[in-house]
Amino acid sequence: MEVIAEYKPGEPVDLRFHHGVEPAYVVQGASVHAPGKDAMMLPTGATVLNLRDVKHGGFKIVGDISLKLHTVHVIDRGKPLYDYSK
Known about the structure:
Shape: globular
Radius of gyration: 13 Å
Order of helices and strands: EEEEEEEEEEE
Strand content: over 45%
CATH architecture: Sandwich
CATH superfamily: Jelly Rolls
Helix content: under 10%
Number of strands: 11
CATH topology: Jelly Rolls
């Protein structure tokens, strides 16, 4: 499954994992902030690889620019796209 996702300033990106892999390309970079850490820039052109069953996300978009990602999900048949962690 291929997805273009946009996260607007102030929106959270919930902590989650996948039953498969999720490579991503940052179409439009933005500043992100995870609890207990300093805000950091996720730059345009960066690549990300979220591995099988590894938690990722858990941050909020800060600043005034939306984060846009192009992702491809290779997920086990019959499994949900996202499993959310709290």
